[in-house]
Amino acid sequence: MSEQDFPEDEFAARTQAAQKAMHSQGIDALFFTTEAEMRYFTGFRTLFWQSPTRPWFLVVPVNGKPIAVIPQIGAHLMASTWIDDIRVFSAPHPVDDGIALLADTLKGFTKIAMPMGRESGLRMPLRDFQRLRDLTNHAEYLDGTGPIQSLRMVKSEREIALLREICGIGSEAFARAPELFHSGQPLNEVFRSFRIELLKQGADDVPYLVGGAGQDGYGDVISPPSARPLQEGDVLMLDTGATKSGYFCDFDRNFAIGQASDAVRSAHETLVRAVEAAAEIARPGRTCADLFQAMAKVLDQSEGDVGRLGHGLGMQLTEAPSLTGFDETPLRANMVLTLEPSLALGPDRMMVHEENIVIRDGSPEFLTVPAGPDIPVITR
Amino acid sequence: MSEQDFPEDEFAARTQAAQKAMHSQGIDALFFTTEAEMRYFTGFRTLFWQSPTRPWFLVVPVNGKPIAVIPQIGAHLMASTWIDDIRVFSAPHPVDDGIALLADTLKGFTKIAMPMGRESGLRMPLRDFQRLRDLTNHAEYLDGTGPIQSLRMVKSEREIALLREICGIGSEAFARAPELFHSGQPLNEVFRSFRIELLKQGADDVPYLVGGAGQDGYGDVISPPSARPLQEGDVLMLDTGATKSGYFCDFDRNFAIGQASDAVRSAHETLVRAVEAAAEIARPGRTCADLFQAMAKVLDQSEGDVGRLGHGLGMQLTEAPSLTGFDETPLRANMVLTLEPSLALGPDRMMVHEENIVIRDGSPEFLTVPAGPDIPVITR
């Protein structure tokens, strides 16, 4: 019944690429508990992950198709994907939410890799994981973070098409800012109107919308909105992660309410110049650290407190790699990245700016319609 | 800057209740990595959890206020909560995303409890968790799932007020169905219009919206929408988890497009009668299993494949307890529950219905405006 986001060969290609890496590293099976990895290899997409009640498991053997070990409630939807081997358990269950079935599925494998490193988590109870380890004590569990992140970093043209679409939707929504926002509007109403505009422009969902507003900058970039009305001289920033078919945009825009101070104008121009400096050199052969340094040089500040100046983008709002001074990941064609420079304007004031690009052979492709150096002024 | 969802005494009361349980069980500290628990004890609310890059840690000692051990990027927002002891680390960091600082924070504790059981997960890298265990090998890590779930199950009147508000918003949005939905409308456009309506009615966000449509029922209850147009004779079901100040509603409504078959009319009436049978007996002294049995008796089917007929509701779309035949959790006043009976109508066809209630001394309070036995027919 459910429509697939990609044809079967997309998932087959991902699986084969993973299996090639597994072969070369002597890994028998990959084991996943998390939404992004489950969806990456199967196409299984549902918001039901919002419910923490039931665990979901995926096993990617070194040969053959992935095996889904999932609660009965997901069997119908999983049957609409390319997966053939779907093993279901009843959940919630009095004593065993799928662990015996999962252990049985893993019994033929001795070197099992799973994400254990940076950006990963374990979406199953620790107690059940320990029981799984006990039931499969013939096997060694290895850290598979590196190979999986390396695979997911480089997007297919089909993935890029979805990312281009949602970035275009975000750009269209931001273009309507002069009609949507006005002085005196409470910040939570600004958020509400922008969420609605994103949906009207074609976003499926808006899982992420943060921002701030304040005189000559804002205090942080992760807060939910207050009811404080926009005031003359405010800088308003909205940062959105909207989705289309499960793929995210992640970029922001700044607006001056009524007027912008020289400090704000200058900061905005500097942020845009920092993005341009990174985009100028962003191509295969350079590294994440190179992009970080290119931006840091324009910003002329120490690293600041955000920790990085951009990151990977795709099925998650943020993905590997990180644009930091220590991430030496080489850029490869079809990586999708955010460029996200930030500037401190005072002890409790900052500004941030963000664009989304694809690394190409040659100049990068901008997925977002890039902001110009002049901060837009809302005059309503 | 950021407005708090509750006054400080709400968080102090939660902390004291947890500490009372810790005292009685000989626990020195609670340790959390997940959004709901962090927010429950601190009030720290942000959509930034969408980014998997950085871990967030909370330690609740047996005496005194909770201690936040968090990335620098969250320091400003955390400072707006009632928490005084905020220990920050730089993240992403080349080699240590906060583990040394966390270990130092935990060094005075020998019995540390954390969620390890049903419905829990570990939102930090497994490798880092192992390193934490190594650095704090003086301490014993215990499963604290039970005490925390027991605490969170019973809501304060302030929490219930937010839940009442978002359930009211959902009810208002569903009441507009005759104007929003019509025969020939693609299902993904049905979803889009309903999301927008929820926001217009005052929801902050719609993290969960699933559903289905099909002749005489739908195939599952977790799918994203297809582009298939609604047809005469379809049953349309929408199930929404919208939020207000971080609290969820979780209920659904069924609509017949143009006309309803006798089987659909009868199934809808049976589902509503099942809810009524559970609500009839829902009060302190009864158990979750009692509610399950009351519904199962009306449904006159075996448990089916959904696994349960309702669950707790609050800061998460689904919370403990579960309305199953094996969950003997006694009902207590101010528990908020969903009643969610489902019926199989054929090998690939089902219907589900859901309401949200508060357990009170006496009859329960309905937070949703309850559906009547007659399935509403959309005649446009």
Note down, in words, how this protein is organized.
The structure is a homodimer of 380-residue chains. Chain A is α+β, with helices and mostly antiparallel strands and 380 residues long. Chain A has 2 domains: 8-152, Creatine Amidinohydrolase, Chain A, domain 1 (3-Layer(aba) Sandwich), CATH 3.40.350.10; 157-378, Creatine Amidinohydrolase (Alpha-Beta Complex). Chain A contains 11 helices and 18 strands. Chain A has helices spanning 8-25, 35-42, 75-78, 99-105, 126-135, 145-153, 157-175, 177-180, 187-200, 262-281, 288-299; strands at 29-32, 57-61, 67-71, 85-89, 111-114, 140-143, 205-215, 234-244, 247-248, 251-257, 310-312, 319-322, 336-339, 342-346, 349-352, 355-358, 365-366, 377-378. In chain A, the strands form 4 sheets. Chain A has a 6-stranded mixed beta sheet, sandwiched between helices. In chain A, strands 7, 8, 9, 10 and 18 form a 5-stranded mixed beta sheet that branches. In chain A, helix 5 links the parallel strand 5 (111-114) and strand 6 (140-143). In chain A, helix 4 (99-105) packs across helix 5 (126-135) and helix 10 (262-281) runs antiparallel to helix 11. The radius of gyration of chain A is 22 Å and the shape is globular. The N and C termini of chain A lie far apart (47 Å). The model of chain A has no long low-confidence stretch (mean pLDDT 96). Chains A and B meet through helix 3, helix 9 and strand 7 of A and helix 3, helix 9 and strand 7 of B.
